[in-house]
Amino acid sequence: MTIAQLARKTVCELTPYQSARRLGGKGDIWLNANESPFANEYSINLAGLNRYSECQPPELINAYADYAGVEPQQVLTSRGADEGIELIIKAFCEPNCDSILYCPPTYGMYAISAEINDINAKVVPLTPEWQLDLNAIAEQLDNVKIVFACSPNNPTGNLLVRKDIIALLEMTTDRALVVIDEAYIDFSLQDSVKDLLATYPHLVILRTLSKAFALAGLRCGFTLANKEIIEILLKIIAPYPVPVPVTEIAVQALSPAGRARTKFQVLDLCANRAYLQAGLGMLAGVTVFDGYANYLLVKFTDADKLFNTLWDNGIILRRSPIENCIRISVGNRDECEKTLAFIRGQLQQ
Questions:
Q1: pLDDT, tens digit, 9 for 90 and up, residues 34-72
Q2: pLDDT tens, 153-199?
Q3: For the chain, where are the alpha helices, taking DSSP H only?
Q4: Can you say how many angstroms the Cα of residue 292 is from the centroid of all Cα atoms in its chain?
């Protein structure tokens, strides 16, 4: 047998997630991966690396629980929120039997993780206002074990209406989990639904340190849920999912000083987002959608042409599946000024 014949058919036919790094590019301005422009310094103690790490380091769990305002038994840490998605699907869906449901345009890994695990994916697009289509979701819930929703949503940047999330939780009670992906919630913390964990035991929330905490390279994510769900996920997580240096750095980031620094940097990025939104919004033929994270979705008359020109000139942005739209991460002020000036120059030619 060939290697391809030995491999699972599902995997051979899979189109992998097209991450920013896989797409590549060459340039000086990278505003394509929703990364933070801040490179913060940390100290690492290299002693003890000959020993395995704890599966769920108490100091890290306690630090994030304190930050999120939940109990430690409601927190699981993993290799980014992506592993959280994978664990939830593996733990709660039977292959070739159960389904997940997700609402595009949204983060692509929900569908890819389902496909990898031979789980059917039902698609209910967001409304034209990029909100949950509750009636359509209600009609598609047969055999659905997990509903994924993202708020702020990637790539649109908008928040889901809270009353719609509550309505979704009501309709899925005793039927399915509802996973709210809050990877970008640190830019709009007051809009988190973590308070609903006390009312809805089937609610799961995904979080990460990759965005606001400027630790994309650390790969440290969190799942917030009731104790029963966390205990189920702990049955299937890898034995040593959190490297010792990851714990050390994450705990420093979640310290009072680290949280204060993050709060300041979030305010800076929100100011830069407002600068980009105002500047782009003044250009003819450009629509800038309201954003509540560290990126903006922007519609142009000919997005493909503009994207390619930017790419060729070393300004790397992100194509969007939404027609004639480009997603622009919010960088430092210099990056934002140069990107805005280049786009203005191209559109005014």
A1: 999 999 999 999 888 999 999 999 999 999 999 999 999
A2: 999 999 999 999 999 999 999 999 999 999 999 999 999 999 999 99
A3: 3-6, 9-12, 20-23, 58-68, 80-92, 109-116, 134-139, 162-172, 227-234, 244-253, 256-281, 303-312, 333-347
A4: 13
Q: DSSP state, 302?
A: T
Cβ atoms of residues 65 and 206 within 8 Å: no
In order, the DSSP letters of 61-118 are HHHHHHHHTS-GGGEEEESHHHHHHHHHHHHH--TTT-EEEE-SSS-THHHHHHHHTT
Q: Which residues contact 264 (CB under 8 A, 6 or more apart)?
A: none
Tokens of 134: 């509750």
* pLDDT at residue 109 in the model: 95
Token pair recorded at residue 32: 């394509």
Is residue 165 within 8 Å of residue 132, measured between CB atoms? yes
